[in-house]
Design brief:
The complex is a heterodimer. By secondary structure, chain A is mostly beta strands. Chain A contains no helices and eleven strands. In chain A, the strands form two sheets. In chain A, strands 2, 4, 5, 9, 10 and 11 form a six-stranded mixed beta sheet that branches. In chain A, a hairpin with a 2-residue loop joins strand 6 and strand 7. In chain B, 0% of the residues lie in helices and 51% in strands. Chain B contains no helices and eleven strands. In chain B, strands 2, 4, 5, 6, 9, 10 and 11 form a seven-stranded mixed beta sheet that branches. A four-stranded antiparallel beta sheet of chain B has the order 1-3-8-7, with no helix packed on it. The chains are: A mainly beta, B mainly beta.
């Protein structure tokens, strides 16, 4: 059974702080790593699909890096804003199925 | 193309009853996953099915079960409902290495 682990489980930061969290996944049979943002009362929204070792993706103040050899991805948020408050999910795809982590719940205080 | 559809959207059940939630994936998607989100908490992985086989199971009691049909739709069953089972149940479908697409969820209230 594949395990996708995210840390920390929850995070509280002040508005303007930069933050990052980790997604760990099995390094074998890697196909893709996804990041999603899940705001309360909404469906999860796709952020990034990452497929190559060393990939770095950016979307506004949010960026992500990927290390497939060691099996981890980092999500960075620069200058956090209250609207960034959400649960951030990563998902690992290995050509057979997709497994989600439990998420990191980010709260940004004004 | 229709997105991921879940039914019903809202449901109220009594403790001890059984409930079945349904999910229709996007056409062509063979993988379906179920998640539980309790108010104030992040989503919790329940099950994943691919090509009608269970590929993963989260830390949920045996009261929770699921299955996937030949048309790739899926059902989540919960027996002997407890008050703590009240939550939003989300279904997601995916294909290849593309994004997973989520339904709007079923809001289950156990009274």
């Amino acid at each position: 059974i594949l395990n996708v682990e995210q840390s920390p489980q929850s995070l509280h930061v002040q508005e303007g702080d930069s933050t990052n969290f980790t997604c760990s996944f099995p390094s074998s049979n890697f196909y893709a790593l996804h990041w999603y943002r899940w705001e309360t009362a909404k469906s999860p929204e796709a952020l990034f699909v990452m497929t190559l070792n060393g990939d770095e993706k950016k979307k506004g103040r949010i960026s992500a890096t990927l290390n497939t050899k060691e099996g981890y991805s980092y999500l960075y948020i620069k200058g956090s804003q209250p609207e960034d408050s959400a649960t951030y999910l990563c998902a690992f795809y290995n050509n057979n199925d997709m497994r989600f982590g439990a998420g990191t719940r980010l709260t940004v205080k004004p | 193309d229709a997105g991921v559809t879940q039914s019903p959207t809202h449901l109220i059940k009594t403790r001890g009853q059984q409930v079945t939630l349904r999910c229709s994936p996007i056409s062509g998607h063979k993988s379906v996953s179920w998640y539980q989100q309790v108010l104030g908490q992040g989503p919790q992985f329940i099950f994943q099915y691919y090509e009608k086989e269970e590929r993963g199971r989260g830390n949920f009691p045996d009261r929770f079960s699921a299955r996937q049909f030949p048309n790739y739709s899926s059902e989540l069953n919960v027996n002997a409902l407890l008050l703590g089972d009240s939550a939003l149940y989300l279904c997601a479908s995916s294909i290849g290495t593309g994004y997973a697409f989520f339904g709007q969820g079923t809001r289950l209230t156990v009274v």
